[in-house]
Amino acid sequence: MEPQTAAGKVLWHFAMSLDGFVAGPNHTMDWMTGATFRPGLVEEYAGTTGAVLGGRAGWDAYPDPGGIYGGAWQGPVFVLTHHPEDAHPTPGVTFLNCDVAEAVRIALDAAGGKNVEVFSPTIGRQLLERGLIDEIDLHIVPVLLGDGIRLFDNPGGAPVRLELLLGGDPKAAVDVRYRPVPAE
């Protein structure tokens, strides 16, 4: 895969379980313990990200902007919420109560030509519906959670077709093969 570039894109970016969850119940992330990623991945995204846009539920579960990319990234964080007045003030974090399109515009302005990373399934879905997501970047972790917060949850909605950016056939399915690990 080509390395990510800082090009003022809106990225919906997550590590995801094989069954489509980006967080466990109550936003737990312990399921990622022991997962490995390609060398340089964190540095790549930390270097191309200019701002982060997230939702209130995720922020309330992890209210520390210093934890983004293990502390390798620092920059403006925007949290979209219907109740900014009860949010705990945090340096570098702006709580917004506006339309998602306005929130992404604010984040893009603050990103200074780098990318905005969307760390919210709900906000990402709303931006996707409005044509405001440039890319969806997923890192599939070899685990089946069975419960939690899905990347894309849109019951009754129409399928959203995507184009693969790995080169070759843009409509190709991605092949993965795993085997269950015996319980210890």
TrEMBL record:
Transmembrane segments: none
Source superkingdom: Bacteria
InterPro entries: DHFR-like_dom_sf (IPR024072), RibDG_C (IPR002734), Riboflavin_Biosynth_HTPR (IPR050765)
Domain Bacterial bifunctional deaminase-reductase C-terminal: 76-163
Protein name: Deaminase
Organism: Streptomyces lomondensis
